[in-house]
Amino acid sequence: MHRRSGEVHDQFDVTLEDSDLLGEVELTTNLIIAASESDDHLSEDQIDQILGVVPEPRQEG
User: Fold this and answer.
1) Alpha-carbon Rg of the chain, whole angstroms?
2) Could you give the CA distance from residue 45 to residue 49 in angstroms, rounded to a whole number?
3) How far apart, in whole angstroms, are the C-alpha atoms of residue 61 and residue 54?
C-alpha cells in the first residue's frame, strides 16, 4: 500500500487474514461478552465451556 504525502498511518487499520488469530479473537470476544453479562466472576468450568475445552478423562492409578 502506498501512502499519499502527508497521510498518517492508522495502526488500527489492519486486515486480519490469519485464521488462528481470527479464532483467538473470537474466543476472547466470547469471554468478554460472557464476563460482561455475568453478575459474578466466571468459574473455571464456565470459562472452559466458553472456550470449548474438553476435560481429559481422569486416570485412576
Assistant:
1) 19
2) 6
3) 21
pLDDT digits (tens, 9 = 90+) for 3-33: 566 677 787 877 757 888 889 999 999 999 9
Cell of 34: 460472557
For residue 2, is pLDDT > 70? Answer: no
Closest CA to 52 of 35, 33, 38, 31: 31
Provide the pLDDT confidence category of residue 37 given band limits of 50, 70 and 90.
Answer: very high
Cβ contacts of 55 within 8 Å, gap of 6 or more: 48
